[in-house]
């Protein structure tokens, strides 16, 4: 897979993806920091990025309008970089058998100290 990490998440997530054999880029490294969500979306779709963010509300809406996309990963909690890496690694392990997550969303959250991973289609 080819991931693009949003500016709201730490740049160290790039190395996590690369260690698992994926191509990965960070919004900041592509000169896209500060871009609005709706301005990022055409680039995400055009380059077949699986986008990784914690901006669930905005990107669920944007992805719901796309007929075809390479997937969305939402790391729900605002947490320190070390925990972001752990949560992203859990997502990558979930996706290890999948070559792609076309038109799917994978959300990972922590509830009562337990990691909860949810996967669903979008658009439905």
Model description:
With 124 residues, this protein is of the alpha/beta class. The protein has a single domain, classed as Rossmann fold. The protein is 32% helix and 26% strand. The chain has four helices and six strands; from the N terminus they run βαβαβαβαββ. The chain has helices at residues 13-19, 37-46, 56-64, 81-94, and strands at residues 2-5, 23-26, 50-53, 72-75, 104-111, 114-121. It has a six-stranded mixed sheet with strand order 2-1-3-4-5-6, with helices on both faces. α4 (81-94) links the parallel β4 (72-75) and β5. This is Toxin-antitoxin system, toxin component, PIN family protein. Pfam families: DUF5615. Residues 1-100 form the DUF5615 domain. InterPro entries: DUF5615.
Specify Rg, calculated over alpha carbons.
13 Å
Structural class from helices and strands?
alpha/beta
Strands, total number: 6
Strand residue percentage: 25-35%
CA-CA gap between termini: 22 Å
Count every helix, treating DSSP H or I runs of 4 or more residues as helices: 4
Largest sheet: 6 strands, mixed
What can be said about this structure in brief?
This protein has 124 residues and is of the alpha/beta class. Helices cover 32% and strands 26% of the residues.
């Amino acid at each position: 897979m080819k991931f693009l990490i949003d500016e709201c998440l730490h740049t160290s997530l790039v190395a996590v993806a690369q260690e698992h054999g994926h191509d990965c880029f960070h919004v900041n490294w592509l000169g896209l920091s500060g871009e609005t969500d709706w301005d990022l979306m055409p680039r995400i779709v055009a380059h077949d990025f699986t986008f990784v963010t914690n901006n669930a509300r905005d990107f669920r809406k944007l992805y719901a309008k796309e007929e075809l996309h390479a997937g969305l990963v939402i790391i729900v909690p605002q947490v320190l970089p070390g925990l972001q890496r752990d949560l992203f690694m859990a997502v990558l392990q979930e996706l290890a058998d999948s070559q792609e997550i076309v038109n799917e969303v994978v959300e990972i959250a922590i509830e009562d100290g337990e990691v909860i991973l949810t996967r669903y289609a979008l658009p439905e």
